[in-house]
Design a protein that fits this description.
Strand order of the largest sheet: 3-2-1-4-5-7-6
CATH class: Alpha Beta
Bound molecules: S-adenosylmethionine
Order of helices and strands: HHHEHEHEHEHEHEE
CATH architecture: 3-Layer(aba) Sandwich
Structural class: alpha/beta
Number of strands: 7
Helix content: 40-55%
CATH superfamily: Vaccinia Virus protein VP39
Radius of gyration: 17 Å
Length: 222
């Protein structure tokens, strides 16, 4: 069992405060949060879920791409908030089936499509453009998916990536857990690539496990 520093990014008293303010009122989303907690399924933290909900509304998203569906929690959050069509990629068959069932329970089967595929290889086959992309799949592969994500995003669209500060390990050597060194190195490269990319302007937020928000700006394809 790896011990992480739970306060590495945000002090727990702040997290407690934020979560007390958010309070989940949707019974299905609440049941998914409980299911994820009981079964150790990593879903977006409540404050991150609220953030992508707000962003999806703010950018008036009509099409959203998500990488990493899990039980369908964040896909449902974004579809409910924005009314957008959501395409969500998941490579685990059981998860994809569970997500489809939850999406059916949410009455959103006509809005959310779960694509059962490996996001490392399928992105070039997906048709864009998207108004928003939520990158929440395999962390060590964000860096390799960045090019496809930018190509799939419309100019002015948002690329949001979760877990980019990875329990504090990205910013501080003392927090690095040996077994996670490859993920840490690649997430650091991912952040650098976002910050240096001529077609992106990126903010890094110490929210939840660390979130980046990038807007695609006009620029030459690289
Ligand atoms: C953090 S969870 C997604 C949580 C979800 N976005 C939410 O907040 O409700 C990451 C998911 O990505 C999936 N995943 C991992 N590697 C993948 C890959 N190569 N292609 C597609 N999905 C992948 C995992 O099975 C897992 O369900």
């Amino acid at each position: 069992m790896i011990e992480y520093d739970k306060d590495a990014i945000v002090h727990s008293y702040i997290t407690g405060f934020l979560r007390a303010k958010i309070r989940q009122s949707d019974p299905l989303l609440l049941s998914l949060e409980e299911y994820a907690s009981e079964h150790s399924v990593p879903i977006a933290e409540p404050e991150t879920a609220r953030f992508i909900s707000v962003l999806s509304r703010a950018c008036k998203a009509e099409r959203i791409l998500e990488i990493g569906t899990a039980v369908g929690y964040s896909a449902i959050v974004m579809a409910k908030a924005s009314g957008a069509e959501v395409v969500s990629v998941e490579n685990n068959h059981e998860m994809a089936e569970l997500a489809r069932e939850n999406i059916r329970r949410a009455g959103l089967s006509d809005k959310i499509t779960v694509v059962e595929a490996d996001a490392k290889t399928c992105l070039s086959e997906i048709s864009g453009p998207f108004d928003m992309i939520f990158l929440d799949g395999p962390k060590a592969h964000y860096i390799y998916m960045l090019g496809d994500c930018i190509s799939l995003l419309r100019t002015g669209g948002l690329l949001v990536a979760d877990n980019v500060l990875y329990k504090g390990m990205i910013a501080d050597k003392a927090h690095v857990v040996r077994r996670k060194i490859t993920i840490v190195k690649r997430l650091r490269k991912f952040i650098d690539a976002l910050m240096e990319h001529p077609q992106l302007e990126t903010a890094i937020l110490p929210l939840g496990d660390g979130v980046t928000v990038s807007v695609k700006i006009q620029g030459e394809d690289v």
